[in-house]
Amino acid sequence: MKRFCCNKEVIFNYIKCKAINAYLSYNKERAMKTNYIILLLIVIVFSCKKKDTTPQGDNEIWLLYKRFNPTFIEIKRGTTLTFINKDNSNHTVTHNGKLFASGKMKTGDKFEYTFADSADYTVYCNYHPDNLQEQVYVRVK
Question: Model-level pTM greater than 0.85?
């Protein structure tokens, strides 16, 4: 009879251990899934940039979405234009006659140029010279 009781205890402990292991395994899987979801949310939050709601100034040209905005501007002689890179890519502001060049502009960088002479100027991005949307035409009166 003692032997039977021992076997019952052994069997009960075995079942109890299996149940605890199954419970812990379930929680580990759930914890792993939760960790993956949290990691995914962190990546999404940090990879998304806050939308810039700053209004564009009259004498500003933005480099945004691999294009100049606006693509044409008419200004008076002596006006200073500010070129601002609001894109995630690097860009340049380069005059097609090499009158001026900004060099590498990272996100958030600014370049200013004062147009002293009346003329028509074509400005492009040296990194993307074939992209016609990355050109701006400046008419100085």
Answer: no
